[in-house]
C-alpha cells in the first residue's frame, strides 16, 4: 500500500514539475513576443512620425506654391541615371522581389560606428550603406558616375572642380541635402578639435569648399593633386543639422559610439543610440531614399561572431548569408554536399585586394627602437619565409606582396621581387649591427647585453594569423631572435596602434585602383592617431610621395611611384606579406551575384542583390 502511494506521489510530483516547466517556457515565449512587439511598435511609431513630418512639409510647400516637378540627373531613356542602371537591370529579372534581410557576420566587436572617429574596415562597411558621396565608380568600366552629382566641370589647371547636384535628395530624417552640407562636411573634418587626423591629412590639399546656391558646390585646391577628383567626389556627406552641434562639444563627438545619419539607402533605427554593448549592427531601409532604384532588402544585419568555427556553423544553419572560408577548410567545404547544395561559390582576387604586413615600430616613448636600424628590418624580412607561410598556412591561396602596390598596378616596378628567406644573410646583418649570442643561451644580445626579444601583436580571434605567428616564432628563433606572440582584442589593438604602444604588429591595408601611400609612409603622418603608426621617416621617400601626388599626368606619375616603391622594398618599413584570395560561399537565396573589375558585387552600392519572394525567410 505504501509503495503504491509512493509511486502515485512520485508521478504527481513529476507531472507538477512538468507543468511548472511548461508554464515557465510559455512565460518566456510570451515575454520574448512582447519584446518583439514593443520593438516593432517603436519602429512603426518612428515611421509614422516621420511620415507625419513629411506630410506637414508637403502641405506647407503646396500652400506656398514651391512644389515643382523634379528634373533628376543625367540618365538614359529609362529615366534611370547611370549609377543606378546595374541595379535597374536587376529589377527586370523575372523573379525579382523586394523584402527579406541581408545577414552577415563580423569577426570582432566594433569600437564605434561614428564616422571620422572610426578607423577600421568593419565600421566603414556599415557606414557605406548610410553615407553617400557626389560620385561613385562603375564596377565594370571603373569610370566615375554621378550619384548625388548630376554633372561636373574640372578647370584646365585641375585646381577647381565644380559639381551640379540633384535637388531631390534628402537625408533619412527628411531634411534636404544641399551644397551647404558638403561645405559643412569639409569644414567639420578640418576642425582640429574633431578627431579626424587621417581625413585631414588628405583634405589639406583643398584650399576651400564653397556653395554656389543650394545645389552647386565648388572645390578649390591649393596645388595640383593626382586624386583631386576622387577626393572631392567621394567625400562622405555629413548632414549639417545633425553634426553641427558637436562643434560646440567636440569631445562628446570624439568619444561617441554611434552617431550615424546620412542620405543612403539604409539607416540606424536611432542615429544616436548604437553602442558596442549591443553587439550586432542592424540597419533598416531608408523609406525616404531618393535613389532611382530602391534597395531590395528591408534590413541589413551584421552579427558579431568572433570564432571561425562558430561562423561556419552559423552559415551552415542558414543564420548568415555568406561565409569567407579559411584555406585549410576550403577544399573540404567544396566537397561538402550540404554546403555546396545551399551555396554559390566564388574564388577570386580583385585588383584592389589589400595586403597584409608586419609593421616594425621604429620609435616608442620618444626613443628609437632596434627596428629604427634598416639592417634589423631587412634581417627580419629575410627571416620571414613568406612562400612557406602562403603554402603551409594559406595553402597557396595567396600571392607574395612586394610592396603596397599590387603586382598588376602601373605603380609597381615589375623588376622588383619579393624578399626570400635567407637565414645566413639575416644573421650576417644582425651581426653587423652588433647582435651576438654572448652567453650561449641561444638568444642574441646587443653590445650592452640586452636580449633581442620583442612582442608581435596580432588579432586574437583570427586562427590563421595565430598559426602564422607561431610559425614565425620558430623561424625567428633559428636566428636567435626571441619573439613573444601577443594576441589582443580588436578595440585594444586599435588603441595600441593609435598610441604607437607596440613592438611589432601584423595587420592589413585595403587597396585602391591607384594607392596613395601618403598616410602610411610619409613622415608627416608619424604622429599620434596618424596612420604612419611605425614612425617610419625617409626624406627621400617623402620627396617622391609629394612629387607623385602633385603630378596629374599619369605617364609622369607612375615612374615616381616606382622610384618610391624601390625605396620601400630596400628599407622594409613593413615586411610585406601577401595578398589573399577570397574564398567565398554565399547562400543561394541571394541572387544577381556577378564578378566585376572590383570583385564580387555583393555589398556593392547601389544594392544589386535580392532574394526571390519564394526564398525569403525574414
Automatic annotation (TrEMBL):
Keywords: Membrane, Signal, Transmembrane, Transmembrane helix, Transport. One of its GO terms (biological process) is peptide transport. The chain crosses the membrane at residues 12-32. Pfam families: SBP_bac_5. GO terms for cellular component: ATP-binding cassette (ABC) transporter complex; outer membrane-bounded periplasmic space. GO terms for molecular function: peptide transmembrane transporter activity. InterPro entries: Peptide/Ni-bd, SBP_5, SBP_5_dom. Residues 145-516 form the Solute-binding protein family domain. It comes from the Bacteria. Belongs to the bacterial solute-binding protein 5 family. This is Peptide/nickel transport system substrate-binding protein.
Amino acid at each position: 500500500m505504501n509503495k503504491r502511494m509512493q509511486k502515485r506521489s512520485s508521478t504527481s510530483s513529476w507531472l507538477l514539475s512538468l507543468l511548472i516547466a511548461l508554464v515557465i517556457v510559455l512565460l518566456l515565449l510570451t515575454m520574448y513576443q512582447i519584446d518583439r512587439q514593443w520593438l516593432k511598435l517603436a519602429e512603426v511609431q518612428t515611421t509614422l512620425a516621420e511620415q507625419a513630418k513629411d506630410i506637414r512639409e508637403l502641405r506647407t510647400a503646396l500652400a506656398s506654391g514651391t512644389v515643382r516637378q523634379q528634373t533628376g540627373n543625367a540618365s538614359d531613356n529609362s529615366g534611370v541615371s547611370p549609377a543606378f542602371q546595374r541595379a535597374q537591370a536587376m529589377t527586370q529579372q523575372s523573379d525579382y522581389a523586394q523584402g527579406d534581410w541581408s545577414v552577415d557576420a563580423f569577426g570582432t566587436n566594433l569600437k564605434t560606428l561614428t564616422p571620422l572617429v572610426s578607423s577600421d574596415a568593419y565600421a566603414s562597411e556599415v557606414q557605406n550603406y548610410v553615407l553617400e558621396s557626389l560620385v561613385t565608380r562603375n564596377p565594370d568600366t571603373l569610370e566615375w558616375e554621378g550619384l548625388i552629382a548630376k554633372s561636373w566641370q574640372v578647370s584646365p589647371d585641375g585646381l577647381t572642380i565644380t559639381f551640379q547636384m540633384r535637388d531631390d535628395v534628402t537625408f533619412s530624417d527628411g531634411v534636404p541635402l544641399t551644397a551647404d552640407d558638403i561645405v559643412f562636411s569639409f569644414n567639420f573634418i578640418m576642425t582640429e578639435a574633431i578627431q579626424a587626423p587621417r581625413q585631414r591629412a588628405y583634405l589639406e590639399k583643398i584650399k576651400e569648399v564653397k556653395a554656389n546656391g543650394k545645389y552647386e558646390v565648388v572645390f578649390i585646391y591649393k596645388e595640383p593633386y593626382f586624386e583631386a577628383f576622387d577626393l572631392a567626389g567621394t567625400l562622405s556627406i555629413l548632414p549639417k543639422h545633425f553634426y553641427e552641434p558637436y562643434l560646440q562639444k567636440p569631445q562628446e563627438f570624439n568619444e561617441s559610439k554611434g552617431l550615424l545619419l546620412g542620405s543612403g539607402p539604409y539607416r540606424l533605427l536611432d542615429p544616436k543610440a548604437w553602442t558596442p554593448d549591443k553587439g550586432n549592427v542592424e540597419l533598416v531601409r531608408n523609406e525616404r531614399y531618393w535613389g532611382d532604384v530602391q534597395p531590395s532588402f528591408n534590413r541589413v544585419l551584421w552579427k558579431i561572431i568572433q570564432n571561425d568555427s562558430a561562423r561556419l556553423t552559423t552559415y551552415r544553419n542558414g543564420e548568415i548569408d555568406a561565409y569567407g572560408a579559411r584555406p585549410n577548410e576550403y577544399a573540404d567545404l567544396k566537397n561538402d554536399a550540404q554546403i555546396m547544395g545551399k551555396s554559390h561559390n566564388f574564388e577570386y582576387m580583385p585588383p584592389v585586394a589589400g595586403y597584409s604586413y608586419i609593421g616594425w615600430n621604429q620609435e616608442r616613448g620618444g626613443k628609437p627602437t632596434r627596428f629604427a636600424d634598416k639592417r634589423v628590418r631587412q634581417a627580419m624580412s629575410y627571416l620571414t619565409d613568406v612562400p612557406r607561410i602562403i603554402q603551409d598556412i594559406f595553402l597557396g591561396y595567396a600571392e607574395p606582396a612586394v610592396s603596397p602596390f599590387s603586382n598588376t598596378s602601373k605603380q609597381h616596378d615589375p623588376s622588383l621581387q619579393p624578399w626570400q628567406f635567407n637565414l645566413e644573410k639575416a644573421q650576417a646583418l644582425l651581426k653587423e649591427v652588433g647582435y651576438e649570442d654572448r652567453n650561449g643561451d641561444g638568444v642574441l644580445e646587443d653590445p650592452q647585453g640586452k636580449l633581442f626579444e620583442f612582442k608581435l601583436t596580432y588579432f586574437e580571434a583570427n586562427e590563421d594569423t595565430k598559426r602564422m605567428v607561431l610559425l614565425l616564432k620558430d623561424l625567428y628563433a633559428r636566428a636567435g631572435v626571441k619573439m613573444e606572440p601577443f594576441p589582443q582584442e580588436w578595440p585594444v589593438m586599435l588603441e595600441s596602434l593609435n598610441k604607437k604602444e607596440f613592438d611589432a604588429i601584423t595587420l592589413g591595408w585595403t587597396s585602391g585602383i591607384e594607392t596613395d601611400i601618403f598616410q602610411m609612409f610619409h613622415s608627416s603622418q608619424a604622429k599620434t592617431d596618424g596612420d604612419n603608426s611605425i614612425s617610419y621617416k625617409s626624406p627621400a621617400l617623402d620627396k617622391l610621395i609629394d612629387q607623385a601626388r602633385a603630378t596629374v599626368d599619369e605617364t609622369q606619375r607612375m615612374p615616381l611611384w616606382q622610384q618610391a616603391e624601390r625605396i620601400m622594398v630596400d628599407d622594409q618599413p613593413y615586411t610585406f606579406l601577401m595578398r589573399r584570395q577570397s574564398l567565398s560561399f554565399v547562400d543561394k537565396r541571394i541572387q544577381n551575384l556577378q564578378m566585376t573589375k572590383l570583385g564580387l558585387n555583393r555589398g556593392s552600392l547601389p544594392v544589386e542583390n535580392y532574394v526571390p519572394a519564394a526564398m525569403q525567410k525574414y
